[in-house]
Every structure is written in C-alpha cells, then in structure tokens.
Amino acid sequence: MSGVRISKKEKERIENIISELNRVYGTENRCFLHHETPWQLLIATILSAQCTDDRVNQVTETLFKKYPRLEDFANANQKELEKDIHSTGFYKNKAKNIIACAQRLIKVYDGIVPKDIEDLVSLAGVGRKTANVIRGNIYNEPSIVVDTHVKRVSKRLGLTKEEDPVKIEFDLMKKLPTKQWIPYNIQIITHGRSICSARNPKCEQCFLKEFCTYGKKYKETLSKQEKQRKNPLIEGVK
C-alpha cells in the first residue's frame, strides 16, 4: 500500500475497513460545500475553516449572488465582506484572505484555479487541506483532506497516531490505496457526523467496531463494567 511496510494482519484489517466503508457509504464522489465554479469552491473552503459546512452553505447562498464574479471579490471592500461572512467566524482574516486570494488568481493565474498543490498553497488562506479539497473535487486528483472528522476517526481506527494534519495526511497516503483517497474523505466525514462523533460515539452501532482500535477498547471497557456489575467483589482485581 503506497510503498510502506504493513504486516499481513494489519493489511487485512485495513482492507476490511475499506470494504465496509465502501459497502455502507459507497464510493461516489460528492462535495458537501455548495458551488458552481472552482473559485466558488475555493472561497467556500476558505470560509469552512473552524465552521460547519451547513453554515458556510447558508452564507454562500447569498454571498455568491452579491459577488457573482471573481473580480467582485478581488475588488470587495474588506469591512463590508467581513459583515457578509461574519457568522462563519474568524471573519477578519477570512475576508482579508479571500480578497488577496481572488486578486492573485486573477493576476497570476488568469482567474483559473490552479491544479498543482504548490500553486494552490501560494494563495492567501489556502493550506494543504483546502488545496486537497480543490484537487479532489475539481480535478479528481487523488488527495486526502484532513478535517476534524478525518483526524478523529482515523486516529480511533488506528490508522495514525499523529496530531498534525499534514503528518496524518501522509500516514493515510501510505496506508490507503490511492484509489481510496477521495472516497475515504467523504466516507469518514459522513461516519464522523453520524456515528463516530467527538463526544459519545455510537460504538455499539458502528459497523467498523470489529476492526477499530478505539472500538475494541470500548468493548473491553463494557465487558469489565459488566463483570463488575455482576460481581462487585472483583473490582480492582487484575
């Protein structure tokens, strides 16, 4: 898998995880952020930092009507744009970055959102996460987007121990087949929202619990609690 040594047992575990994700969620590529053009997706993704996709979609519904062209964002008044995107949080930096991003797109790239990751991260407000959203959704380039859901669920699944999103991205690139990178993004975001939430994950309902390191610990905890409930005298006995 992508040139990294993985034990046969671990390889089988990862293959089972992938198989179950594909079975339950499918492999269709879809984007949770509403957009009609590549540059709209770029701006929506910048707005999505520390903000839910639902909130961003609510904001961009009117935002893209008020600013229908990339040039409109490039020439926007920053204070006014801040008011337009206020509810997405961090609105001052986001407004500043969106204007600078739009200006560079026009000046350097003739208004076309670039495909190369190095070009993308040269834009204001664009890091690897945003760049990979564009590469995967616009250009169908295999890429892994590490958002809060992907970070949390991937760690619980035992696919990474890292905290840094870039290190997590490279861990997943090493362990997952290239063709699975884009589907994995969508599947894990869906799974993180519906089952493997940050608080009170629904481990008992999870179809991945058999292959999940976090799920196994959860199962062991329940087993110990059950034994202690049946026989309080064994509490504290190793």
Automatic annotation (TrEMBL):
Tell me the GO BP annotations in alphabetical order: base-excision repair, AP site formation
Question: Which amino acids does the record list as binding [4Fe-4S] cluster?
Answer: 196, 203, 206, 212
Q: Which GO terms describe its molecular function?
A: 4 iron, 4 sulfur cluster binding; class I DNA-(apurinic or apyrimidinic site) endonuclease activity; DNA binding; DNA N-glycosylase activity; metal ion binding
Q: How is the cofactor bound?
A: Binds 1 [4Fe-4S] cluster.
Keywords associated with the record: 4Fe-4S, DNA damage, DNA repair, DNA-binding, Endonuclease, Glycosidase, Hydrolase, Iron, Iron-sulfur, Lyase, Metal-binding, Nuclease
Reaction(s) catalysed (UniProt annotation): 2'-deoxyribonucleotide-(2'-deoxyribose 5'-phosphate)-2'-deoxyribonucleotide-DNA = a 3'-end 2'-deoxyribonucleotide-(2,3-dehydro-2,3-deoxyribose 5'-phosphate)-DNA + a 5'-end 5'-phospho-2'-deoxyribonucleoside-DNA + H(+)
UniProt keyword annotation of Glycoprotein present? no
What is the top-level taxon of the source organism? Bacteria
SMART domains found in the cross-reference section: ENDO3c, FES
What are its cofactors? [4Fe-4S] cluster
Enzyme class name:
lyase
Q: Which Gene3D superfamilies match?
A: Helix-hairpin-Helix base-excision DNA repair enzymes (C-terminal) (1.10.1670.10), Hypothetical protein, domain 2 (1.10.340.30)
Q: Which CDD domains match?
A: ENDO3c
Q: Where is the HhH-GPD domain?
A: 47-194
Enzyme Commission number: 4.2.99.18
Q: Name one Pfam family in it.
A: HhH-GPD
**Family affiliation:** Belongs to the Nth/MutY family.
Q: What does this protein do?
A: DNA repair enzyme that has both DNA N-glycosylase activity and AP-lyase activity. The DNA N-glycosylase activity releases various damaged pyrimidines from DNA by cleaving the N-glycosidic bond, leaving an AP (apurinic/apyrimidinic) site. The AP-lyase activity cleaves the phosphodiester bond 3' to the AP site by a beta-elimination, leaving a 3'-terminal unsaturated sugar and a product with a terminal 5'-phosphate.
What is this protein's record name? Endonuclease III
